[in-house]
């Protein structure tokens, strides 16, 4: 009797499911294959996880391969981030494979210690805002900085972890267009981003409010202002924060309605063309004293032509230009925009930089790259093309716990990084993860610096477009300079900046010698190097 009861309950449940499947009209599969058809939907829902952990090799996954994630996870935990037995990349037959050319002899002697340089200070080769005489011009302490990620898109714990990590690594954190929250006030220097909705500096009607901007930047350690024109993953669209993520706190910070989709306009209302934009840039710079720049994906070249024309024939201009590649990340975007709108970073950046170089304007502008540049080889290519700094976003997300579940738009991020669910966010310990963010930034800077040493130069900003080749399998290889039509000197800082950064790096090399035996510079006063756990890191970092 007991066995019959035990079997009867699941049998009745299956019969109920079968009856429902046969009567429903939404899914032909379930009407034709009741009960069994649900297995197909289960496998479909588990597809990303099955591919990630079982069926794909080390270099197949996107946006980040298993090897790339493994390097980030290991670096963030201070574990061994070297790889054995040689590359498993298909170097011989892959079209477009990047090769960095080392030099046999150089005045710059590379360190023999793989871990040397963790605490080395690696500043920008240019002083941000100096060319235009901004009152608060400064030399960024780090050429690697945390890119724009808003509170709302990321959880409060994630923003806190990144801010504390940026403090320890002595790098900048971009607030993203979602405004400046209390979670951004944990010690790091900030770049305040102004998007099309003017969150944090808007009036009750959603219009830009200069007084509120001035008050806000004076209340926090804001070092520069970035005007977001477009984003690589969704150019031509405003920011999108699904209503599930719009909590009462976020609604208050942004000045929007709680629980409703927060969609920013696709274009600015404070200006309508390049001429009025530059007037606005100069107004904001004059009132705040801060360097002011723009962030944009690359599409139609007429915008850049107009900007260069205006900057050439007037005394107005931007202090920095951030170019975002089409391969960049986002929390939510229509598939066609993330897949097919705007140029990828390399071709987009090279096109814009060449236009500024033709006009002789590059020395007075700091160029910043973003879009999957948080891996050493991609970062080196960006520096060779002319970037003075790089912004990283998804890679530090991986460092603090992201497992590439691609649930950012659902508010169900399993590791608490990209969610406003208090239950999911609870799993992310901001203090512990801040150490990992710090470790990751330091590891990336160290590896990029070591490549610069191998190339025989004192600083990554001195790597040239001729130092990197793009190979088409075994057939031929073309330098970046040839590929993108760069002339001699393009991609490099001006002579004065080259001399100064070489002098600074020589001074740092004469500083204290670290435990590994490599010359290391002192860290920012009040901060120290960090150590993480030891052990083995899997492809998902065992988060």
From TrEMBL:
Biased composition annotated in UniProt, kind: Low complexity: 526-537
Species this chain originates from: Rhodococcus oxybenzonivorans
Protein name, entry field: FMN-binding glutamate synthase family protein
A Pfam family recorded for this sequence: Glu_synthase
GO molecular function: glutamate synthase activity
GO BP field: glutamate biosynthetic process
Family named by the database record: Belongs to the glutamate synthase family.
Region Disordered, residue ranges: 511-543
Annotated Glutamate synthase domain residues: 139-457
Top-rank taxon, per record: Bacteria
InterPro entries according to UniProt: Aldolase_TIM (IPR013785), GltB (IPR024188), Glu_synthdom (IPR002932)
Gene3D superfamilies hit by this protein: Aldolase class I
TM annotation in the entry: none
């Amino acid at each position: 009797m007991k066995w019959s009861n035990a079997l009867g309950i699941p049998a009745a449940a299956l019969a109920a499911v079968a009856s429902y499947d046969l009567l429903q009209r939404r899914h032909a599969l379930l009407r034709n294959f009741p009960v069994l058809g649900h297995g197909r939907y289960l496998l479909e829902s588990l597809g990303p996880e099955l591919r990630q952990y079982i069926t794909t090799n080390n270099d197949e996954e996107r946006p980040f391969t298993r090897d790339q994630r493994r390097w980030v996870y290991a670096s963030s935990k201070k574990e061994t981030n070297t790889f054995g037995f040689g590359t498993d990349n298909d170097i011989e037959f892959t079209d477009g494979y990047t090769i960095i050319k080392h030099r046999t002899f150089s005045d710059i002697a590379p360190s023999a210690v793989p871990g040397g340089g963790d605490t080395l200070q690696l500043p920008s080769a240019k002083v941000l805002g100096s060319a235009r005489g901004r009152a608060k011009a400064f030399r960024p302490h780090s050429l690697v900085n945390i890119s724009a990620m808003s509170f709302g898109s990321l959880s409060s714990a994630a923003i806190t972890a990144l801010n504390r990590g940026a403090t320890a690594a002595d790098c900048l954190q971009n607030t993203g267009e979602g405004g400046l929250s209390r979670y951004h006030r944990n010690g790091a220097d900030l770049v305040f981003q102004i998007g099309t909705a003017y969150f944090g500096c808007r009036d009750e009607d959603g219009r830009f409010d200069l007084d509120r901007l001035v008050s806000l930047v004076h209340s926090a350690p804001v070092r520069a202002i970035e005007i977001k024109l477009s984003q690589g993953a969704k150019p031509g669209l405003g920011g999108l924060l699904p209503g599930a993520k719009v909590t009462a706190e976020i609604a208050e910070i942004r000045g929007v309605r709680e629980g409703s989709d927060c969609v920013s306009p696709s274009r600015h209302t404070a200006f309508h063309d390049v001429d009025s934009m530059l007037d606005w840039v100069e107004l904001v710079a004059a009132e705040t004293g801060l360097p002011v720049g723009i962030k944009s994906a690359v599409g139609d070249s007429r915008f850049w032509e107009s900007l260069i024309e205006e900057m050439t024939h007037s005394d107005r201009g931007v202090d920095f230009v951030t170019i975002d590649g089409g391969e960049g990340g986002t929390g939510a975007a229509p598939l066609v925009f993330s897949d097919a709108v705007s140029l990828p970073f390399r071709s987009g950046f090279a096109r814009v930089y060449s236009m500024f170089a033709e006009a002789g304007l590059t020395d007075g502008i700091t160029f910043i790259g973003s879009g999957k540049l948080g891996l050493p080889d991609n970062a080196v290519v960006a520096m060779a093309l002319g970037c003075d700094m790089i912004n990283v976003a998804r890679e530090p997300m991986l460092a603090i716990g992201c497992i590439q579940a691609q649930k950012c738009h659902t508010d169900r991020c399993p590791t608490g990084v990209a969610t406003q669910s208090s239950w999911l966010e609870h799993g992310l310990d901001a203090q512990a993860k801040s150490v990992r963010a710090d470790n990751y930034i330091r590891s990336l800077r160290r590896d990029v610096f070591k490549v610069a040493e191998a190339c025989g130069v004192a600083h990554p900003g001195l790597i040239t477009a001729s130092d990197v080749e793009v190979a088409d399998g075994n057939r031929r290889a073309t330098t970046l300079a040839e590929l993108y039509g760069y002339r001699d000197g393009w991609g490099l800082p001006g002579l004065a900046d080259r001399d100064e950064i070489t002098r600074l790096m020589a001074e740092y090399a004469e500083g204290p010698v670290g435990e590994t035996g490599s010359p290391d510079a002192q860290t920012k006063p009040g901060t120290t190097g960090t150590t993480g756990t030891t052990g083995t890191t899997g492809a998902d970092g065992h988060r």
